[in-house]
Every structure is written in C-alpha cells, then in structure tokens.
Design brief:
- 38% of the residues lie in helices and 13% in strands.
- The chain is an alpha+beta fold and 362 residues long.
- A 5-stranded antiparallel beta sheet has the order 10-9-8-7-11, with no helix packed on it. A 4-stranded antiparallel beta sheet has the order 1-4-6-5, with no helix packed on it.
- A hairpin with a 2-residue loop joins strand 9 (338-341) and strand 10.
- Helix 2 runs antiparallel to helix 3 (115-129), helix 5 (173-181) crosses helix 8 (228-236) and helix 7 packs antiparallel against helix 8 (228-236).
- It is globular, with a radius of gyration of 24 Å.
- 37% of the residues are buried.
C-alpha cells in the first residue's frame, strides 16, 4: 500500500510501478527516473497519480518498504494538472504573431507595416531557438490561433533552422527567415477572401491563389527598408527548379537562393498538414522522393539528413498504441527509425506493420 505525501511528483522521482496510458500501454516503466519532460508527458496523458519510491523517514506514516530495501518507501504522488508555464519560445512566438497580424491588417487597410517591431520580435524568436529545443517535426506555436499566421511562423522557424546547414552566409540568415515569415502576405490583399477558404478551391479561385506571390512581391518590393531577397522569396517560393511552379514558371537559374530555402520549408509544412492518419515522418520521405528536379537538391539533402539526425530523443506513438523514444534514424529511411519501447528496440524498417502516428512535443 502506498501513502499520499503532501508534495506533488517532480523530476528525480523514481517510479515504483509502471505508468500506463488510458489504453493500457506502458508509458513509463517501473524504475524510471522522472524528468521535467516526463512530468509534462504525464499531464498530456491526464495521468493524475503515480507511485514512486522515496527514502524512508520516521515521520512517514504507513511507509511501505519496497524491493529495493527497507530504506525505500512507496508513496502515491499527484501530478499537477494546472497549465504548465509557457516556454519562452512559445511566448516569443505569441508576441511575433501579434505583430505579424498587424502587418496583415496594414496590407488590407493600405497602412504602414510595423517592420521594426516585426524584426525585433522575429529576432527574439530566432534567438530563443538557440536556447530552447526547436524541432520542425514537433514544435507548433500555441499562438497565434489564426492557422495562416501560425503556419507562417512555423515556415520561418524551419527556414531559419535549415539555412544554417547551407552555404548561405551567416549574415544573411535573418533575411532568409524574414522572407519566409512574409512569403504568404500576398494573401492579405484587401479584396482577397482566399486566406479563409478551405480546399478544394474552384478553378477561378485557384487562379487567384496562384497570384498571391505577385501580390506579396508588390507589397514588399516597395519598402526601402527591406532586402530585395525578402520580396523575391515571397514572389518565388512556389516556383520549382524544373519550371513547373507558379506564378511565372521560372527555372532554377532564375530563382533567388532565399526563395529556394523558403520553398523547402514551405513544402515540408504543406506535407505535414496532409499527413492526417499517417506518420508525420513520412513527410520527410515524400519530400526526399518528390523533390528531385523541383526543389534545390543540396537544400533538400541537408534538410532530410539533419532532421533525421535530430530525431533522436523524440517521443513518438506507434500505430499499436505504444509510446517510445527514437534512438536511431537512417536518412535513407527517415520515416522508419529504431524506437525504444519499454526497454526493447523496435526496428520499424523491419517491422513494416508498425508506423509512427504521432510525434510529441514537450
């Protein structure tokens, strides 16, 4: 029997029993030493109590000795269910979202874009990315709620993450990120209702959609404080190396490097949004397989290789309901890594009946 102490569960506590999900799968095994991420995960799965081992104290009433010896007691601790403090990166994204919304409103109303404030908040986000763990597969800002603004921030963060693995000079990284953040601002033009339309679009609506890069370019190119590459990123991020893109059907030699970076980040997030019911990691495989001749090969290769490497340590849910941690991933098969589940290794490249269906962010 376990006793109930006054203090809640915390990092460093050692589990005395397996913690199971509501579906009965082992979430964390007996003997596991809890981390802050584990506590967040317990909240995520609405686990309200766990049994842990603690050192025996004479004032612990009814302490029960466990198998680790007479000096260990099993106690029942509660998991705080209050909303955890928002991480600094989430807060930085929320502030950026407010200024980005003001930029879109300025385009609709013909006003002046608050570019100085936008640069400041974007700089805060990129700076926070170096201290907080940002992962393109799992990080989603909680604010802004507007899906287009939220997506613009994610594309910008992913472009910033990718550019460091390319040959673009470091002093241009911020401009690439700014171009990614503003790449869809053409959807905010005063007479456009497409920013709120759900697919599929009618043929005439699709024709209008294909012109939004032109509207964005016209908005940005007239701003003397902006790098020309930022405006070209808005114009060309839907162009493709083989000339199959839009709005102008340009080929690789005529595309700005910023646009090529933004195109990879934008295509990746577009793929993630179509992964309903599928492994989020399959977006990487699709990007790698479908990008030849369309997206810049060097940028795609760097993105897939680095993001595959960065999978290690991510918590995922498999299609059989079990929770595991990625321990190794092969860039040739980015959607089928090795996953540690309750101490055993699941080789997804061999066990084809299993897939990753959810990637957790804590």
């Amino acid at each position: 029997m376990a006793v109930q102490p006054a203090d809640p569960v915390r990092a460093g506590d050692v589990l005395a029993r397996d913690v199971r999900t509501p579906g009965g799968n082992v979430l964390l095994p007996e003997g596991h030493v809890l981390t802050e991420r584990d506590v967040d995960m317990l909240r995520h799965f609405l686990i309200r109590q766990v049994e842990v081992r603690c050192a025996y104290r004479p004032d612990e009433v009814h302490a029960v000795a466990g198998p680790r010896g007479p000096d260990a007691a099993v106690v029942l601790k509660t998991v705080p269910m209050g909303t955890p403090a928002r991480e600094p990166l989430q807060l930085a994204c929320a502030r950026l979202g407010k200024v980005l919304a003001a930029c879109w409103d300025a385009v609709r109303q013909g006003g002046k874009l608050p570019l100085n404030e936008l640069r400041t908040e974007l700089d805060n986000v990129t700076g926070q990315m170096t201290t907080d763990r940002y992962h393109p597969l799992s990080f989603v800002p909680s604010e802004p709620k507007d899906p287009l603004l939220n997506r613009s921030i994610r594309v910008a963060m992913t472009a910033r993450w990718l550019v460091q693995w390319t040959d673009i000079p470091r002093n241009e990284w911020f401009q690439v990120t700014l171009g990614a953040l503003l790449c869809d601002i053409g959807l905010a033009k005063p007479d456009s209702s497409l920013s709120r339309k759900q697919p599929p679009l009618a043929p005439e609506e699709w024709d209008e959609w294909r012109r939004h890069p032109v509207h964005g370019f016209r908005t940005l190119i007239g701003l003397p404080s902006l790098n020309r590459g930022v405006a070209l990123a808005a114009l060309q991020h839907h162009e493709r190396n083989d000339g199959s893109g839009y709005p102008l059907g340009l080929r690789s030699a005529n595309l700005h490097p910023y646009a090529k970076i933004v195109a990879v980040a934008d295509a990746f997030h577009a793929l993630l949004e179509t992964r309903s019911g599928e492994s989020p990691l399959s977006a990487l495989e699709t990007l790698r397989e479908s990008a030849f001749g369309r997206l810049e090969p060097a940028f795609v290769h760097a993105f897939v290789e680095k993001l595959t490497t960065y999978q290690r340590g991510i918590l995922v849910r498999l299609s059989d309901g079990t929770i595991g941690e990625i321990v190794f991933a092969d860039p040739r098969h980015p959607a089928r890594p090795m996953v540690s589940v309750n101490g055993r290794i699941v080789h997804l490249a061999r066990q084809r009946e299993l897939d990753i269906v959810e990637v957790f962010s804590f």
